[in-house]
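S.,

Sequence below, as promised.
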Amino acid sequence: MQAAQSWFDRATSHWQDWDPAELTVAKDALRISVVIPARDEAPTIGGIVEGIRAELIERRPLVDELVVIDSDSVDGTADVARAAGAAVHAARDVRPDLGSHGGKGEALWKSQFVTSGDVLVFVDADLTEWGPHFVVGLLGPLLTDARVQLVKGFYDRIMDDGSGHHAPQGGRVTELVARPLLNLYRPELSHVVQPLAGEWAIRRSMFESLSVPTGYGVEIATLLDVYARNGVDAIAQVDLGERAHSHQSVHDLGLMAAELIAVASRRLGLGTEPADLLWQFSRQAGSPWVPRQVPSVERTPAITVGGARC
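The prediction came back faster than expected:
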């Protein structure tokens, strides 16, 4: 507990601690790529792309490229993102020789083949309350401390019940699955506030050396792998203020939780390989028990297949 608190005190900052003009100088010759994985996010993707482009590319040259990886959207997400100024790539069309899988992790893994940044910043595509300061905050520790390999964001969530109230804790899967797992098996990471946050940044040299789950397990896998490789001092976190986004059904969250447990178990040495089906009960289904496939595919490190830099 004392070690985790000590890490929190020295490795946690606030987005207001980081000045974008100073970071633009600090980045020197490093290239920065912002990557937005998206699937059917036409209502929100345009504003996110426009905000980052206007503030961090046009107003000041902190970000060098802004890329959207589209995962089989059917609502025009790609067209909206392209019109807003992003370079857009369909995940399935990136390195087709390597095959294609569904999932967020797949989009992030594929992004390594169509970006050139030394630092990769990942931002979710469903944000409704956010700001370009998300990117600035995530870059701060990476551009000013050579020891830092991974930066996680955290924030107050704005509730989607119409009240506008803030929830300082993470989402349901974060608080009921991810943080208990870390507290029990990797207590040094117990003070990572939101290990599943979709806003994070990593050095390319680290990310391209990691195995990447193709689904929602990518965040906890990356956190655990960076810790295993370089220890807790390679990780920093930044308070990004507040964030609002769309929410999923409890059954969908159950599938996400099962995937996180499976991904974490491989890295925590919890025993045999988990089963690949999650059975969920539903009175509305034709049969009361509905089996759902738990994503289990992990991509090999991008550096092992070549071409992982545009």
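The first strand starts at residue 12 and ends at 14.

Coffee later?
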